[in-house]
Amino acid sequence: MPFVNKSGGEEGEESTDVAAGAPPAFDIDFDPNDPEQVKVHYNLAGWTFDQRAELAETLAERGIPHVWEAEELVVPEELEEPVDELFDALEAEIGPFPVPLLDDDPATEFGLEEWPRADIESLKTSLIEAEIPHRWDRSTLYVAADAEHVVDDLLDAIESGEVASLDEESEAPDGALHDLFTAADRLRRDPTNSSAREQVLDLVPRLSPSSPPYGLPAGSWAAMVGSGQALVAAFRAGAPTDELQAAAGNLHAVCRPWV
Length: 259
What we know:
It is built from 8 helices and 7 strands, in the order ββαββαβαββααααα.
């Protein structure tokens, strides 16, 4: 769901020079320049052109009166509930959507001028998948202050190769899901199994959470890759066998519904 706020009513607002959307199918007299009318603003910063086009087409099809103000969609308060339902449906179909970080929100800055484009694209996808509020200013990333440590870990993982770089033609290696599941199954039974351990250490760093095997939902694959990365981290940290067994069990559990 995009960031939402309201305007109008008793406090009023300055009028905006925008045109109304498609003729409404709802029996609502929507005047976007009326300071007395309460309006709901949906911040769509970070949405792709295709996502915005799909939203615009759906609004027109449903006859929802609306206006656009820069990167915000504005609708009358009376339609907040059906528009919320529309966003939920679109997110299931073409999401996930980025969570915008507003200009006055507490933020941490990361300068990524030296990062290659493929790593930047992988980072963008991971931030959206993790629902971390953020915004970009060219090659500078701003994230919510309370997500600083999470993003630090994510940047380290991408730089070390634990999260694969995203190429436009990238996809998971053939048989990756089956191999991940099989290795996790062997390790949850015997965390000292050396061949399964080597298989996980070799395979997981080559997987990208944004490049699932054909036909597998991106969110489910991202959860599998995340569990795989947690198991790799446990191996590299020399974790005790019970922690390794638990991490392998988590990986097995997220893979099992898709095998």
